[in-house]
Amino acid sequence: MRFMTSCAALFFLAFAAQAQVTTKNAEPTGAVTPDDMSRRLDESAQKIRKTGAAGADRAAQIDFAWAQDEEEYRALAKYVIVLVCAVSKNEKELPLKRVYIRDKWRHEVPLERISSELREVPKDSAVYSVFGAYREDSFYLAPAQLMKGEGEVVADFAANRSGFRLYGLPAEAPDFVEADRHGKPARGAKPEPKALKAMLEREYSGFKLPDGLQ
Fold this sequence. Notes:
Layout: E1 9-14, E2 17-22, H1 34-51, E3 58-65, H2 70-75, E4 79-88, E5 98-103, E6 108-110, E7 112-120, H3 126-130, E8 134-143, H4 144-147, E9 151-156, E10 164-169, H5 175-178, H6 193-203
Antiparallel strand pairs: 1-2, 1-3, 3-4, 4-8, 5-6, 5-9, 7-8, 9-10
């Protein structure tokens, strides 16, 4: 279950200042594909072009999905699936070093990466000319409790850039998640492979599945 109010955002670095463009839509959406993420990046690149800016050193799009019901929520061990598509002009910046949640007390909780895929950026695209030739699509598991709390989702690139803000929390969660006062996964708990595969295939079509779920 995905809500655009809680899942679509672009943050980019241009010159010495950081700016952001956030897309919001309150309606649930269908499965996201690699081409969908490419279009989001392309739309943002086109907006940068209209400002007259020369481009940005790097960019990222984030999308995340909640379980569709309470049964799936528990099968996923109370985790949220997070997709990060990062693009850079510098090959050494990818794959991302880490993605994490920084809560309102500035505590940092690293998210577990479950898959990573490098993807070619078409040379004739606005993304290539504005943001760069190198792209990584990676999936992470985020504790539901942290996603619905105050804070932010942040990424560190492998070089040159740390603390790249991806999304401001809290995120809008389904009612059954909001009602769970103990939304923190149990220590050592992992999503059931069958449930994780089913959710990834339903919510994110065309992406590489994590090892062991092929």
